[in-house]
């Protein structure tokens, strides 16, 4: 009888020990982002090198901090959000309890160069 229970536990697992992937850590571990990877940091995230990377940029001006009429300058506070697809960091949200977005440190992945030219 004990051998039968052992076979059931090996086939179906011990009840209550199944770990859920409902955590951000589980997702980070799945994407291999729990440790830094130089490849993810330096390589543009596309499978084919001749494919372009579409980068979306949203800019919100929170306020004008200073206006200097004499030097004709304006100091403002601006928040910039950039978005792009990293083809190497994809997952099925249903496997992670519906997590469909992930915010990570920019030091872990490639980040597009964005510059603002002032005229």
What labels describe this entry?
119 residues; alpha+beta; two-stranded antiparallel sheet; 2 strands; 19% helix; 20% strand; disordered N terminus
Mean pLDDT: 81
Helical stretch tally: 3
Task: Report the biggest beta sheet as strand number plus sense, adding barrel if it closes.
Answer: 2 strands, antiparallel
**Structural Rg:** 24 Å
SSE class: alpha+beta
> Could you name the ranges where pLDDT drops below 50 across 5 or more consecutive residues?
2-19
Number of strands: 2
Describe this structure in words.
The structure is a single chain. The chain has 119 residues and is of the alpha+beta class. 19% of the residues lie in helices and 20% in strands. It is built from three helices and two strands. Strands 1-2 form a two-stranded antiparallel ribbon. β1 and β2 form a beta hairpin. The N terminus is likely disordered.
Produce the secondary structure layout.
Elements: H1 2-12, H2 24-30, H3 38-42, E1 56-68, E2 73-83
Antiparallel strand pairs: 1-2
